[in-house]
Amino acid sequence: MVGVEAQDREAVRALLAAVRAEGRDALTAPEGRTVADAYGIAVPGEALARDVDEAVAHAARLGGRSVLKIVSPDILHKTDAGGVVVGVEGAAEVRAAFHRIIENARAHAPAARIDGVQVQQLLPPGQEVIVGAVTDPTFGKVVAFGLGGVLVEVLKDVTFRLAPVSADEAISMLDSIGAAEILRGVRGAPAVDRWALAEQIRRVSQLVTDFPEIAEVDLNPVIATPEGAVAADIRILLTTEVAKPRRTYSREEILHSMRRLMQPRSVAVIGASNERGKIGNSVMRNLVDGGFPGEIHPVNPRADDIQGRKAYKSVTDVPGEVDVAVFAIPARFVASALEEVGRKGIPNAVLIPSGFAETGEQALQDEIVAIAERHGVRLLGPNIYGYYSTWQDLCATFCTPYDVKGPVALTSQSGGIGMAILGFARSTRTGVSAIVGLGNKSDIDEDDLLTWFAEDPNTQCIAMHLEDLKDGRAFVEAARATVPKKPIVVLKAGRTSAGAKAAGSHTGALAGDDAVYDDILCQAGVIRAPGLNEMLEYARALPVLPAPRGDNVVIITGAGGSGVLLSDAIVDNGLRLMEIPADLDAAFKAFIPPFGAAGNPIDITGGEPPATYEATIRLGMEDPRIHALVLGYWHTIVTPPMVFAELTARVVEEFRARGVEKPVVASLAGDIEVEEACAYLFERGVVAYPYTTEKPVAVLGAKYRWARAAGLLT
Amino acid sequence: MVGVEAQDREAVRALLAAVRAEGRDALTAPEGRTVADAYGIAVPGEALARDVDEAVAHAARLGGRSVLKIVSPDILHKTDAGGVVVGVEGAAEVRAAFHRIIENARAHAPAARIDGVQVQQLLPPGQEVIVGAVTDPTFGKVVAFGLGGVLVEVLKDVTFRLAPVSADEAISMLDSIGAAEILRGVRGAPAVDRWALAEQIRRVSQLVTDFPEIAEVDLNPVIATPEGAVAADIRILLTTEVAKPRRTYSREEILHSMRRLMQPRSVAVIGASNERGKIGNSVMRNLVDGGFPGEIHPVNPRADDIQGRKAYKSVTDVPGEVDVAVFAIPARFVASALEEVGRKGIPNAVLIPSGFAETGEQALQDEIVAIAERHGVRLLGPNIYGYYSTWQDLCATFCTPYDVKGPVALTSQSGGIGMAILGFARSTRTGVSAIVGLGNKSDIDEDDLLTWFAEDPNTQCIAMHLEDLKDGRAFVEAARATVPKKPIVVLKAGRTSAGAKAAGSHTGALAGDDAVYDDILCQAGVIRAPGLNEMLEYARALPVLPAPRGDNVVIITGAGGSGVLLSDAIVDNGLRLMEIPADLDAAFKAFIPPFGAAGNPIDITGGEPPATYEATIRLGMEDPRIHALVLGYWHTIVTPPMVFAELTARVVEEFRARGVEKPVVASLAGDIEVEEACAYLFERGVVAYPYTTEKPVAVLGAKYRWARAAGLLT
């Protein structure tokens, strides 16, 4: 809490109500100042002059040089209207400026109501920054910070956080922009007062949190100096749009229904069929062929027996408790079947059919959501391929069963991406705990799944493809609770589609959807994958690697050329090449030819025997100052690929048995035998790729990003 | 030519000589001004004041407000020394400023020689930019342009070109910075005089071209306004370092020796051996087993017969003309054998052995280079795996033969990367015309190879891994001559290693090695690959795709989710989604379900039969307004992967037969059958990848970059 007095808050409430009563959605400068004063947002001394004599008197009282600005509820862009004069001093200059401003305003907008001219203290020169807040459709109130001026508006060097922010979060924003260095003082310029600046951010964030009806706030510019941070201008815009409250469930409710979804004992298939090619046939076969050990109950009013199991006319006829009802019937029949599911008290409905919101049938979707809410049924979908819960041998999809059990849970909003997940997993033999289609997300969405996967002992890594979030704040909350336990990889599609969003303020224009997503996902500790393939590779590789315990990465390579490329990748992925201490350098040198290079990368040179790889990798694992190894292998006759793979896996396993675990990744440059060697290494805990120096380091970088977000590294 | 009078040039020459004679390497401000005047570089009116009265007189004569600056050969950073006062007007202010500057300078550097104080016209407010020139170790004289001020120094938004630049090149620099928009005027600010600014760049580039002894020039800032561009400050630094002239060959000489290297009729193997495991044994076997139809002559003083062929004591004993001598002997024996190669008149020596500059034996390398130059022998290597010329069935390496003949020539500086090239090519069945190891590049380097590959009818695409360029200008020249004919892909390693380079000027500090490489390679029309895997994928895919004839890219997808990701990739890769005209939109709509989306991406929706894919792809090929297709396939039972692959390949082939060629790339989302479908498509001219939406579009982006550089698109 910012420490705003209740009476100040009430004064703001009254002021905003008055503005709304007048049918305005923009506050005037004096109104903005009143709000700023109430919230302790520092602004320059100023006063409203209704005539030229008042202007002269105010200027004299404020002292020094002044800025004069038009005050009109009808003129938003004061500069464009010729309504601003900067740096006047003395009665004559003030008089002239006053008259010029009024004339310009009349010329610009003859019908504009003019309340007068604001006389403001001219702020000392300093670094211009912008502090603002907007209402994001996904995340709600969001604060923004960036360097001010035309340059930054063009370069879009801005950062965002969920409002309200703490003092520490506000300070972190100062370091999150590209030009952060400038605030610390460059080329002899002094550093600005960082805490004063952070305080402006914090207070703005509190203001928009307290008043949801404030759509946007702009402090632009804030003049930051070594002595403080003062907002030269404040703009506040109101909105009548109020976000519809979303039905929420408690954590216990979510875990209870998700457990029955992901670990069911009894599944009903509504629309089960004996006819090959029908979805209800595929789902039944996949449940049976996948080896699901629980009860499987086909429901079909026109059959007595489906795939050798007794069929029921209605789900209400199924005996005993049912955990999941999988729908494989056309959209138009879903509502009535869902009523029966509700009456039966089944907690989960998996809606495979399409033909809802995605085809424009929003009303049909709203209808089923209403039915589900009435009965307390959670909905997965509609418009999905279904879901896999591999440790339960549960394949409730119309695709094909997948049986490599493992630690990765994957979800996708799109069916096509879901199929790509399945194909990739099968091709790379990725161990999977679950694959879940989310489709239209009429109810269950990413935050429900995160809440479950965070608790699921079979899941060690979560990867999610998403195009939007129904409730960004719920997602962030679930992600923050999950990340300390396991990494979350997100592929956010539609990064670039947002394009120009109509916005009434600078901050609004800067808050392209993706900029906000990017900053806030990062703050939530999520690893954002740049593309589909990266999401899949991170998901496959992250659980294989142990968490690093420190920042010191060492490259050991048999090919100098790989060493250079691996070093590039280290920097690209935000990692740090360890500066090797003299004793360690000497220890490595003892193993490598005299013309090899210790330092980092450690270039053992090509043509070395297995013993050289082994001795140097062993030393890398042994020395506690080293926290992660990146290996560059060069295919030679002296050390063939499988020999390298075997010795590397053996050394890593030996240390693991002794309790020493470090992430080890490898880039294998060589003929096609390196592919087999990579598969061998991957299965044994070393993330290895052929023909690329980038992928292994990108995966290591993702692991480090998670370790930092999880608080495992200082 | 800038049109500098001969007498002005001579005046500059004399001035620079005088500065050198005094043992200085930095020009004073008045000296800088003299140079600027000679080269027509616009600077403000100014004069040197030796005492305070002169200062007052100069200020009065120049009129308006003035800037006063210390003039001392010993004070480089005037601001840091408190040696600059801005905006003084009237005798009293000038007097005070003069005294303050002298006091500050004395305090800052008591021993500094002080020539006086420069009184300069205060320039009108405008956009600050920086124009400069540096001497790059690879590219020689290079001009730089960026927005001025602390902000840009921090954000490093600068662009570089080889000096001298033409007026058009200079103008292109204004558009090559991230903040280019600012110069065109944003938020009501007027645009600057672009041609005046370009003229400043052009003149600086001419100055450093005329005087190689000028190491660096800084015009910082240049004040750009709608009326002109004037340099507020000019700094010039001299150097004594003169680049050693490199031995050069004419184009005809290069083509002649390269033809004999790449299409030899007779090859001698020096150090050929019967002993398995020896390099001389592998090379002999690979030549023989690879099926090389020319003569193969083993040379070994201790054998009469090697692998069934007559062996010679010395290469001088080999009968007839020999085109290539492959060295497979230890480094210490190379020099004497090379003498014999020279005496025999063999034009090419391929030096596989290591143990030269890369292990610190620079003297040994210098010795063999001297021998080679004396005899006119061109050297490939040393320290390489050898080379492949597949259309000649020539495998002169110690690796394994590679027999998929095709259009791609690949080169690598590193042996490890060479092995990765071989493995990748074999794994993906990439058709290859040559693979060449360059190693230490003691002689033959990338520009020789480019000159050859540009002419080689078997080569349609060239991909090069490099860590440095021996002669950046020769490379650029060869690249510019090649690009109109075929694409060049470059993987430049060591992007990030350059780090902090000692530099005496702003421009120098901005010219991190990689920034210069990046801009200049781009200007040369080269496609820079961000990593090893991308280089390999571009090399494999570029020759498969026809060149696009225009910018209109259309996405046709069966999975909406892929459509979103493909759209992201389109923007990321600098491509443009076509705005679909109404008639074309209607034509697409006729083929897709009512809830599908035309527009672009064209979402045909999941679950559609082959006919829908075929009709829409056919329309995409047919309509001449569409220039490239990106396909998103979603694996369903209705349209299985191979059905999609077959119909797509068939339609593309049908149009090709009718003379309609457009690049078509595809992203296949599905179960593992999509891998086979991708291979099928790739072989038939459609670049297709499974489990990724990024790669196909990245390849299309690379093809577009080439098409633009080759002048095929306006």
Largest interface: A-B, 87 and 89 residues
Q: How big is the Rg of chain A?
A: 31 Å
- Quaternary: homodimer
Number of strands of chain A: 30
What is the helix fraction of residues of chain A, given as a range?
25-40%
- Continuous helix count of chain A: 24
Q: In terms of structural class, how would the helical and strand content of chain A be classed?
A: alpha/beta
- Portion of residues in beta strands of chain A equals 15-25%
InterPro entries (chains A, B): ATP_grasp_subdomain_1 (IPR013815), CoA-bd (IPR003781), Ligase_CoA_dom (IPR043938), NAD(P)-bd_dom_sf (IPR036291), Succ_CoA_lig_flav_dom (IPR032875), Succinyl-CoA_synth-like (IPR016102)
Domain CoA-binding (chains A, B): 261-356
GO molecular function, one term (chains A, B): ligase activity
Protein name (chains A, B): Acetate--CoA ligase family protein
